[in-house]
Please model this.
Amino acid sequence: MNAILSIKPQFVDEIVAGRKRFEFRKHGFKKPVRNIYIYASSPVCRIIGEFELGDIIEDKPEELWNKTHDFSGISKAFFDEYFSAHEIGYALEIKTFKKYSEPINPYKQNRKFRAPQSFCYVESGKMI
Model:
């Protein structure tokens, strides 16, 4: 199983630059996921690349920060605000990131495509 993650463009830039090696989420996957497609949210609205999912760290936010802050790609203040109402958070390890030479417009590939609020599952071998 694969997934598409919606990520804000400023954080996509951090992933592309290699400074963000963990993507943070308030909720974990319920199904096993191997690869992640990165959908850069508005105003980009394109799938810009993909990565193999490494470890998923599930922990209290303060412990997540301690384990991942060197490659978080975000500020501590943003991190704290993001997890402010949550006792548990998730850090998705970004392994073998591949940026596409030409971003994919998912709306051209599938007219029924809807950008996921956070993420959505896709079958292995399919992007959309």
In short: The first strand starts at residue 2 and ends at 7. The chain has a mean pLDDT of 95. Helices lie at 9-17, 61-68, 76-82, 106-109.
